[in-house]
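batch job 7 of whatever, protein = Pseudouridine synthase RsuA/RluA-like domain-containing protein
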Amino acid sequence: MLCTTTSPLNSFGSPWPDLNDGLFYSDAVSTTSDSGLTLIHFYSSKYKNSAPLQGWLQRIHNGQITIDGEVVKEPKAILRDGMELVYHRLPWREPDAPYLLQVLYEDDDMIALNKPAGLQVLPGGLFQQRTVLMQLQWRASKGSSSLETQGSHPVPVHRLGRGTSGILLCAKTKVAKTSLAAFFAEGTSLIGDSSNTNMEQSKRRKISKIYRALVNGILKQDKIIIKQPIGTMRYPGVAKGLYVASASGKPALSKVEVLERDSQLNQTLVQVEIESGRPHQIRIHLSFIGHPLLGDPLYDVGGQPMCFDSEHEDESFAEDGGYERPAKPVPGDCGYYLHAHQLVLSHPTTNEQVIKITASLPPILRTQAETEELM
């Protein structure tokens, strides 16, 4: 049984407050590693990616850290086993972000959204409130469906980059979450299994994702299969490392098909089907073959960042004590043109229904024929 959805069912979203609620981070002092350390040593060593030494000193002097419920402003206070530490990150104004989300498909198990470019999916970095997850939580708290009033809290089961628009799948039950996560994981794991032919892999996959992208330059081949592995490298402003094309990385596979070439503007409109789900895979793969996404501020030819040189350690800090925003581009920066256009999957709980979801294309990612059809 095939279910196809092409038009949004409805939209939802609440405007962002000027300031978020801030955050509270709790720690317990353990005998083995933390007992006997000073307060400043504990935070500046354990959370050095959050702020430089002087930034942590400012936070302590500002009364943002408590020990067993009491504010402590002495950086050299000695920690003892069993103490409870809490750091209060003060409320801040997050960068501008859209908030409206279109519902493309919804049933008792899952919801598919059309995410706008510029909206982050999950909390991270400067974006702790202005996320898809927060809008889903606000929607659930309003009891917009009978299931949600019973305590269901939809959560995204995969990610789209902040600058990427299009289909985002979210689970509304634990069973659906487990199944959908398995669908995505299975697709990625099959890429590393050389014993399977492409035909066998296609039959086994329970989810298929097709994107639209606009790239620099003119692709000569009509169809390209990219199998470049993706790994990480050290990069300023990205604590866990930047994902890049790497011979020692994990297997990844993208199928690229040219839809339209524009010689005058020196750009190509492509369709990309990804059979694995590595972070920033499409951006990395297309730049690896010499055609970075148009407007991508980060990835350059070869699937590497535009800036290779290692930034010297910057001990300056922002008003809240944290590091200043990196001078170099980071993965969350927007400006490129990438859209999750179509998704086909087996239903996560029944497996009997095949669902095809389509998110309408931004004008810049339409072919000339598609544009004329809408006139």
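notes: The mean pLDDT is 89.
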